[in-house]
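USER: If only I could read backbone structure tokens as easily as an amino acid sequence. It would mean a lot if you studied the pair and described how this chain folds. Here is the record:
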Amino acid sequence: MAASAAARTIIENCAIATVDANDTEYASGYVVAVGNRIESVGAGQAPEGLENVVRRIDGTGHLVTPGLVNTHHHFYQWITRGMATDHNLFNWLVALYPTWARIDEPMVKAAAQGSLAMMVRGGVTTAMDHHYVFPKGSGDLSGAVIGAASDMGVRFTLARGSMDRSEKDGGLPPDFAVETLEGALAATEETVRKHHDASFDAMTQVAVAPCSPFSVSTQLMKQGADLARRLGVRLHTHGSETVEEEQFCKELFGMGPTEYFESTGWLGSDVWMAHCVHMNDSDIAAFARTGTGVAHCPSSNARLAAGIARVPDMLKAGVPVGLGVDGTASNESGELHTELRNALLINRLGAHREAALNARQALRLGTYGGAQVLGRADQIGSLEAGKLADLVMWKVDGLGHSTIADPVTAIVFGAAAPVTLSLVNGKPVVEDNHLVTVDEDAIARAARSESQRLARIVAQG
């Protein structure tokens, strides 16, 4: 269909934060979407005489922003929330791996639906899942996750994870929870070839994502990087999350995490890592020099007492930084919009204090920054003509926000703002704070049922 004949949606009379390179904002403006693309953004009323307008929305009392981009998550953890609540990372993993090693396809599907529903209802238009637990005989777990995202209508990146370093090899996962090196590489390549879409408006993409230095062999790290680059996809893993991880790397490899990653081919503009809490100046410089991205997960880092990532220093150095929910067994709220606020507040507890981050920097982390680390900054993350029509209308004239004059301050510093409308690829996925593509109550029931079934299986040994 020609662009001139495609259906148009107009939103006007709203505040707009474009998050473009100049942080352009309009106190009262409009956005026009044609098909799945943004046609125009500007101040005042939308242009007159536009054809084939199928929907005209009065955005009075709202702020329109790019859709939020989640850069790190573990969907399967939705059915194991509220467990091991007073543990650090390593103890938390040891406590939960035996449970996670018993997941199967119906559980993963229900968990993915729950994780996605919570994020999408809260303004996420691009989601990401790092799934790395593949018990033998558990079914098509990657297909279950991708199918859940497709049903929801959300843009999605699956980071196909893997583990091959179990307890017997000095790792943390139990022996029956890991794959072989050959099996992990073969399954990852199959997932990329089957599901990855490299097109501009792709709804599904796949990254190569061995789990972490303490659950993956050096061979899997090196060969995983080679595989990703041969297939032309991105790379993702956990990095520098805790002081224990740093000690582990020094004892096992004779070097710190960043040095180890560089030695295995895991620094580069096609790589992003989750957490990166314990980074010294040389680590940050290496990330900046190579264009390696970071998924900042402030709530999970606080929940597991991992520490405060040096986000202001990373940004100053030029490191691409986005936000991540992380798994909902270490961030039970499961919402990315709360991470805007927590990123700002937690970083102000660090060395830079009140100058650490401001509201607009926090919004940029959750939108354009996320698009950068996923390698899609030319497609999403800001409201600009020619980009994909992924956007959110936040209601800021209600009880929680009406006395905060600046709408960007309202959604970052204030309570979670209701989402009146969320578009992905130009299509509604949220209307009046409710999902429109799926049944929220059915998702809640299915997740509860699968969580209870998993608990019974674990109890039976």
Notes: The CA atoms of residues 45 and 129 lie 39 Å apart. The first strand starts at residue 8 and ends at 17.
